[in-house]
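To: structure desk
From: M.T.
Subject: fold request, one chain
Message: Could you run this one when you get a chance? Sequence is below, nothing fancy, just the single chain.
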Amino acid sequence: MHYFDTHTHAISSDTGTYPSKPLGGTHSQWSRQRPADADQLVRSLDAAGVERAALVQASTFYGFDNSYAADALRRFPDRLVGVCSVDFLADTAVENLRYWIEERGFRGVRIRVSDGTTKVPTPGSGVSDERMRAVWDYVSEQRIPVCIQMHSKDAPKLAEVLETRPGMTVLLDHAGRPDASGGAPYPHLAEIGRLARFEGVHLKVTPPALRRLDDEPGADATEVLRRLVGMFGAERLMWGSNFPASEGSPAELRDGIEARLSWLEGADRAAVLGGNAARVYEVAVGAR
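Reply: Done. Structure tokens follow.
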């Protein structure tokens, strides 16, 4: 099995070179309690047998300054692909994206639309804010994967963006936080399901996504995953450890996700655990 972890973070202890500028002014809890730098991340990936990982900008520590992640990409080009963060509402948003992607080597970008626990402000009126038009046009034309942190209730606004850019590649962090309230037959999964018609939309299955489903009364996380695969296809799901934001090693976090996918056929399971991410980020797995 060739593993590609689509959701990791890293921060440096050198706050002189890499000062902290968290979005919303509040540091994430994990960055205070269990920070990990790029070296620790790569050692943990080695221990887990993970070949590649997406290093997602730690915006609740660095905000829009992607310098530390960029330097980590330069040091570990065969292990890490980068997902930067920029202010989508800034007049210079496209210029900033060009710099981080074309000059500093990032392969994707992330936007937080609905926050988790750190109260990061929602940008404008969400993904359909007219001021974001130039950014959406740029990433669509350049085929840059966009990681979006949102709730399934935001799906209609994202659908507005995708209507005119149907080929855009989107990775929904934490599976788009699907609504499994009420349990079977899960009528509210239709919220996230309305995005399935856009072939570029993918779901990241992460520990926070599973925890959210496990905490929902009457819901069965494994059954919800089956239904999401039925909606989107196994070729549009991928896993992410959320290390170190989620407690545990990448190996432990991956094992917890892989156990929920044991019902998948071998080829589909391999795609979710490595092949789909390699295709989206256009890198090889299995070469090490």
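Reply (cont.): Residues 266-281 form the longest helix (16 residues). Let me know if you need anything else for the meeting.
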